[in-house]
What we know:
Layout: H1 7-22, E1 29-32, H2 52-58, E2 66-70, E3 73-77, H3 85-89, H4 95-102, E4 106-108, H5 128-138, H6 150-163, H7 168-190, H8 204-217, E5 221-222, E6 227-229, E7 249-254, E8 256-257, E9 266-271, H9 278-297, H10 304-321, H11 329-334, E10 392-395, E11 398-400, H12 403-406, H13 409-414, H14 421-425, E12 432-434, E13 437-442, E14 445-448, H15 457-464
Parallel strand pairs: 3-4
Antiparallel strand pairs: 1-2, 2-3, 5-8, 6-7, 7-9, 10-13, 11-12, 13-14
Helix pairs in contact: 7-8, 9-10
The protein binds glycine and manganese (II) ion (MN).
Amino acid sequence: xxxxxxxxxxxxxxxxxxxxxxxxxxxxxxxxxxxxxxxxxxxxxxxxxxxxxxxxxxxxxxxxxxxxxxxxxxxxxxxxxxxxxxxxxxxxxxxxxxxxxxxxxxxxxxxxxxxxxxxxxxxxxxxxxxxxxxxxxxxxxxxxxxxxxxxxxxxxxxxxxxxxxxxxxxxxxxxxxxxxxxxxxxxxxxxxxxxxxxxxxxxxxxxxxxxxxxxxxxxxxxxxxxxxxxxxxxxxxxxxxxxxxxxxxxxxxxxxxxxxxxxxxxxxxxxxxxxxxxxxxxxxxxxxxxxxxxxxxxxxxxxxxxxxxxxxxxxxxxxxxxxxxxxxxxxxxxxxxxxxxxxxxxxxxxxxxxxxxxxxxxxxxxxxxxxxxxxxxxxxxxxxxxxxxxxxxxxxxxxxxxxxxxxxxxxxxxxxxxxxxxxxxxxxxxxxxxxxxxxxxxxxxxxxxxxxxxxxxxxxxxxxxxx
Length: 467
Ligand code: GLY
Ligand code: MN
């Protein structure tokens, strides 16, 4: 459970996080870790994942625990393991050892939490049993995390401000998640080759197993449900049954999460036969041009919306050049025509959550006073802030042929004249392409934490061909 180079630095990192929080609020805070939920009976639970807000300030994924923060003090509330725990779960560190590791000033039983709860704010956790406990111990309703009120809202705003820009301890973990994820994608590319295999084609499931196998072999877990699909037009496709057929593009959106919960999020799209067709290559180059142009713009002070609009413009221009769209790129973006093929936002915050702090709704990712646009081309923008040094964002433009968009009568009629539908038919071998990297905003510009994984078409082909 070593998140940082040694115990002192974990405790130091956590103290610095409390110092940053306490500058923004003047009331006590209780954060619960939550607990695993039963799959089909209590002794067969889903894997435990601690609440990210707890992890940020407690540093360790302790199950069924709470911390109380006041000023710079940290108190841990956690019961000793049950008497028969050693039989089923073996020896585990004592709570005193945990408390020492995280630099807690005191440790208490959970039953003592109520008497320390006066005036405390919290963030609602996802599991209902702990959520119910939150309301019981605080003796008041706790609003859901995505709609906090009162002091819980003040706390959510303060936590969002503190978590928005990553410290050195977080970056160590984020780099580790990125490195393992790169390895997973390389292994996935190498496991996909269909050429020369006769009828023995690998399946999406096989490639997924190879990619997740790398993550598991590093004793990490997946940060989200892997997407490994030849139907990349289904944006969050979690089915893996298709065999890979020569001519398919495989879209893999797979990311590792460290034991302390820090995530990576990478997407690559590759031809399973090891060679892009000319039409696939044409569209791939457009998405890559958007990806590269957006990353080049990432620096402190730039509006993330402008990066999204840049992706939209590069894609629109590329599609005009290919004869798929008609008109001027800026006009096409103005009328949201890019969103026919690029319907999602260009990316999101990344940290302890793959969409960092999305449990708080848009509170963290939208600048105060900004709300979601109702426009077709902007509604799925997940981040709407000027970028700051220390923020980690994804850049993930894409091109998709989504039947639910292309055959939707109102959209079809609205964009009847700007799409050359006959020309589009010539690109039927492209269902979905996305290229996604994790980009850290630095004082002078940016650093792509996932840059070691190739994006260039020829290099991707070489990987698939095992060169
Ligand atoms: N990795 C999935 C997503 O960004 O939505
Ligand atoms: Mn993403």
